[in-house]
Amino acid sequence: MPESAYDAIVVGAGPAGASAAIVMARAGLKVALLERGEYPGAKNVQGAVLYSRMLHEIVPDFWKLPDAPLERPIVEQKTCVTTEDSWLTFGYKSLKFLEGVPNCYTIIRARFDQWYAAQAEAAGAELFCGVTVREVIRKDGRVAGIKTSDNDELESSVVLACDGVNSLLAQKAGFIDELKPVEVALGAKEVIALDSGVIEDRFQLNAGEGSAMEMFGSISLGMLGYAFLYTNKESVSLGVGCRLCDYQARGIRPSDHLELVKRHPYIKKLISGGKILEYSSHLIPEGGMKSLPPLFADGFLVAGDAAQMTNPAFREGSNLAMTAGRLAGETVIEAKRKGDFSAAGLGGYAGKLKSSYVLPDMEEVSDLEQAVASSPEFMTFYPKLACDLAHLRYSVDGVPKREHLKRALKLLSRRGYWRMAKDLWPLRKAAL
Ligand SMILES: Cc1cc2nc3c(=O)[nH]c(=O)nc-3n(C[C@H](O)[C@H](O)[C@H](O)COP(=O)(O)OP(=O)(O)OC[C@H]3O[C@@H](n4cnc5c(N)ncnc54)[C@H](O)[C@@H]3O)c2cc1C
Question: Ligand 1 within 6 A of 298 CB?
Fold first, then answer.
């Protein structure tokens, strides 16, 4: 490790850290980007849907770059509600998603993170892999650098904690406690190889196009969570994610959960003949605004999963991390200009996050998870109700339609109209 001091040390070369490093290095700051993995992305897990707009703001027109490691642009987004033997799918497909800045792409994080960190290096940041940062060092009460697990010390004007969920740095800086099982979900996924033609046939896609689907209901075994299936170029990513406390309470491992998902008749058909290429699992911060740590201190900023910045209701995380990383980087550039890396000099970061979509969106869905968690019917009663109603609607059984309607109303009245209205009202926040 070099001895010289840096303007900024960024810990973690994920979406948050690489974004911050690119922005600062481009502005001429001396930046070190430290990553514990053997290479960026070596240990990172994501579904993975990448939202283009936020990356485009950092690497303009990235999808036109020949080396951008993108899998498929998503043209169709589907939701599937399951019981053991039935499923109801609804979705939206539009070629408009490909126009202008394409809406989103599937990616493989191991490839993407290496490419993204290379953009930071090309901008002038120094990337060091295989470096685990153990704690921050303080001078005169302010964060003044980091110490690695090999006891190397590196000084800087500011340290950016972009080290992901359960951030050791944010803990050492006294910003957060160790996360509680109720504040995190545990996600697990497999990448399953399939020929591109098979993918396009099974998912009814034109060549090169992709789809993303989330599944709710029996598929989560009554736990608060979901399963997902995304198409890559020559593989699909199939995964699950449920609250850690639910897995613990049920004594189920995510890998076993995933095996059960693979046996659902709908999924079984979609992945049939596929070869498992990899399995990975990772925590997802879901504490929302209630778990948001302080965002800055003297010589210190936190961004991305390290600051709990996700929007699970909309399957967003990497985009919040990129935007927060960019805004943290811009804050440091201003602090350098002013020569003030104190909390006062870095405080503009919180305002920038409030003026962006990051904190407003987190605020908007802050009570949603609790509302859904307090009605277990969301995972059991409602999916069955939806499938039962669909079954009635599509059954031609010689029974008069008026009788079908009566049966449907009886099904609906089981939970009580008032209770249903109360249950469903909080979901409006996940609608648009
Ligand atoms: C199963 C699953 C599915 C998901 N699906 C989606 C999706 O489809 N779309 C989406 O937008 N988001 C999704 N997310 C969320 C998304 O992955 C995260 O929000 C995003 O990766 C956060 O980026 P980050 O840079 O803050 O953290 P990370 O991506 O976790 O990066 C942190 C980096 O810091 C490094 N690091 C950690 N500790 C240290 C240390 N002490 N020293 C040095 N380096 C360290 C890590 O190795 C890592 O490279 C998903 C998450 C999971 C687990």
Answer: no
The CATH topology of domain 182-285 is: D-Amino Acid Oxidase; Chain A, domain 2 (3.30.9)
What is the CA(403)–ligand 1 centre distance, in A?
Answer: 52
CB 267 within 8 A of CB 140: no
| CA 397 to centroid of ligand 1, rounded, Å | 51
Element (H, E) at 297: strand 296-297
pTM (2 d.p.): 0.95
Residue 316 alpha carbon, nearest atom of ligand 1: 11
Per the CB < 8 A criterion, the answer to whether 170 and 302 are in contact is: yes
Could you tell me the CA-to-CA distances from 280 to 47, 109, 283, 316 in Å, in that order? 10, 11, 11, 19
User: What is the mean pLDDT for each group of 10 consecutive residues in the chain (432 residues)?
Assistant: 75 98 98 98 92 98 97 97 96 95 97 98 98 95 94 96 94 87 94 98 97 96 95 98 95 97 97 97 92 95 96 94 98 97 97 97 86 83 94 94 94 89 84 76
State the closest ligand 1 atom to the C-alpha of 132, by its place in the atom list counted from 1: 42
Q: What is the DSSP string of 86-141?
A: -EEEEEEE-GGGGSSS-SEEEE-HHHHHHHHHHHHHHHTPEEEES--EEEEEEETT
Q: Which fold has domain 6-69+108-176+293-356?
A: FAD/NAD(P)-binding domain (3.50.50)
- Show the beta-strand stretches assigned E in 123-199: 126-129, 133-139, 142-148, 153-161, 184-193
Q: Whose CA is nearest to atom 9 of ligand 1?
A: 49
Pocket test for ligand 1, best of 44, 149, 237, 295 (most atoms within 8 A of CB): 44
**Torsion angle defined by CA atoms of residues 270, 275, 280 and 283, in that order, rounded to the nearest 10 degrees:** 0
191: tokens are 């990448």
